[in-house]
Design goal:
Length: 203
């Protein structure tokens, strides 16, 4: 029952925010293009509901072709690949705002496990049966793992949080995650990779 209500709320609030934020979003996109060459939007394949792939949208915060340079998928403090504007939109999580489009389209939700790359931390077929439960709900802009450490915890623990969310999903839990996320955004905490997260699969 709550899953249906959750989807309705996702559609409603993403539509409202896209309409109200249209001009600010366009301004951010323009500033990004002025700051560095390349498209304002960054698109990347991620694993979503039931393990199906979709393209996630973000404001581009790194130079074009960044994954082929430096430390690959990891971006730590003072990463030279991050643009001047990119540092600001990452610190404030503004780079995540285009995911409102993903939410409206039904590929994501406001709250849920963060959508993983198709190849990182490992390929879909390499997840254990326990870990695959994280794909039973739509991925989110923020989730239980993000309010409990975000980039400071290894992948096996992140996925345990994701499965906990699947098992206990409710309006109350979503509201709690939303409030804690707002605090983290305003304090700009846990938004930089501090180490190459572990790939322990003993869950």
């Amino acid at each position: 029952m709550y899953r249906n209500i959750k989807r309705i709320l996702d559609i409603l609030f993403s539509a409202i925010l896209l309409v109200l934020g249209a001009i600010p979003l366009l301004i951010v996109a323009l500033i990004i293009k002025i700051d560095s060459p390349g498209e304002a939007l960054f698109k990347q394949e991620r694993l979503g509901l039931n393990g199906k792939t979709f393209k996630i949208y973000k404001f581009r915060s790194m130079c074009v072709g960044a994954e082929k340079k430096g430390s690959g998928v990891y971006s730590g403090k003072n990463d030279a690949r991050v643009t001047r504007v990119g540092k600001i939109i990452r610190a404030t999580s503004i780079d995540e705002l285009p995911q409102l489009i993903n939410i409206f389209k039904g590929e994501m939700s406001f709250i849920g496990p963060r959508p993983t790359l198709t190849y990182h931390p490992w390929k879909l077929e390499e997840y254990t049966d326990f870990q695959k439960r994280r794909f039973e709900v739509r991925p989110g802009v923020t989730g239980l793992a993000q309010i409990n450490g975000r980039k400071d915890i290894p992948w096996d623990r992140r996925i345990e949080y994701d499965v906990d969310y699947v098992n206990n999903m409710s309006f109350g839990l979503d509201f709690k995650i939303l409030l804690k996320t707002i605090v983290k955004v305003f304090t700009m905490s846990d938004n930089v990779n501090t180490f190459e997260t572990a790939k322990n699969k003993n869950s």
